[in-house]
Amino acid sequence: MSPKPLILNLFEMNCVGHITHGLWRLPGNNRHRYTDLSYWTELAQIAESGGFTAIFLADVVGAYDTYGGSAETALREGLQIPNNDPMLVVPAMAAVTERLGFGITFSTSYEPPFAFARRMSTLDHLTGGRVGWNIVTSYLPNAARNFGLADEIEHDHRYEIADEYLEVVYKLWEGSWEDDAVVRDTDAGIYADPTKVHRIDHVGENFSVAGPHLSEPSPQRTPALILATASPAGALRAGRHAELVFTHGPLLERTVPAVRAAAEEAGRDPAAPKFVVQAAVITARTQEEVDAKLAEYREHRSTEGMLVHQSIPIRALEHPRERTIAEALEVEGLPADTPVGRRGAASTVGDLLDAVDEAWQDRFFVAGTPEEVADAIEHWLDVEGIDGINLRQYHSFDTVRDFAELVSPILRERGRLPELEGTLRRRLSGSDRLPAEHPAAQFRGAFTDQGV
Fold it and tell me: Is residue 87 part of a domain?
């Protein structure tokens, strides 16, 4: 029996500070170069040399402004602000690579589906089918205010919008153009057969889209579908739609069976969704070098940045450790009925700080020699039951380079990093197109009686 292959993604964001709070200050870190195209092309080439499946690009469309009641600390920390559009760096990375895929985070909450569908089809064409869509709904209150709303969209309504959003883009990607619509008949002067291109005439609660889709069929039609979830509602949608599920390690035992059950209920193969977790790897040729790196990273980490990222409203570092959360909220004049208050009003500020710092090093963390790292990853695959990892980038480019140069050769020798070619979906599931049982497939041939 062949060893289970590893889905290996590099977790990135088009910004200075993604999820390694304060570490942009590390000596030799290239994070400040995120605005330079050469940063992204160099990163992509290192990742491809290391057999990475994809670069997974996170995104937010608002600032973290819960902590202290403003975005001041987020800006000072460089915590996901400034940040640039993740889609625009993909063509440059694709131009200098041949196999590397790209997972692009895009929210269904604020921008219309018609324009997004065209942008993703364009990227699918330009990359030869190497793109995936990380489907998210936006949760930051500041994001809502950036798009003309007084506050964030209510949770259940966000998911209702997402459901209809998916229906619209599926209709455009899968149903608007028939497979043989593009004929390129130079003698007859016909590029596309208009009888095989169709309006979708979608009219719903949130969107009205006539069509047709503006892009001709791309290699994957629908990009590879990724969904990040840790909630029951998210697991339900992941089971219906996702090919790759990004979840948190502590919730793995709850998420996997929930997603598989939802997939089966939706008529899909319950084994079809694959699961990746955020993982952290610190490695070097010797344990002494590993220990030195770990110490340096911990020295530069920012606890305040962690508090900002977790949208903790109180300035916890300014309170005595023994003060309760309820007391800290009262001192700062904040309502007791907040997520942090409901979670543990009787617990102390010290407990909160310890928990925030503990999150920096969790279940899928390994700091060791390359062989120890490879052993840990094989344990995650074979015992923990995951299919892959999103590798946390502590240092650009040391993290990805260390993995590519030291760990990837060992994983290749052990059969965990096969050299797969083709579209991102083919690398994930062995096929360029979504299977017939996927909900998107119902729209194939659904509009043949509608003209353009």
Answer: yes
Residue 191 lies in a domain: yes
Cα distances from 396 to residues 1, 53, 55, in angstroms, run: 37, 18, 13
In the chain, the amino acid numbered 348 is: T
Give me the phi and psi of 409, to 5 degrees please.
-60, -35
Quickly count: other Cβ atoms within 10 Å of residue 389's Cβ: 26
The pLDDT value recorded for residue 191 is 98
Asked, for residue 228, whether it belongs to a domain, the answer is yes
Tens digit of pLDDT for each residue in 97-108?
999 999 999 999
Count of the separate structural domains present in the chain: 2
Q: Which residues does the chain have with pLDDT short of 70?
A: 138-139, 144, 148, 150, 343-346, 358-360
pTM of this prediction? 0.94
The residue segments making up the domain with residue 116 are 7-303+364-443
Give the domain CATH number at 408.
3.20.20.30
Q: Output the six-digit token pair for 123.
A: 């990227």
For residues 161 and 153, the answer to whether their CB atoms sit within 8 Å is yes
- Mean pLDDT across the chain: 93
Residue labelled with tokens 């003209």: 451
Q: Please indicate, yes or no, if residue 451 is contained in any of the structural domains.
A: no
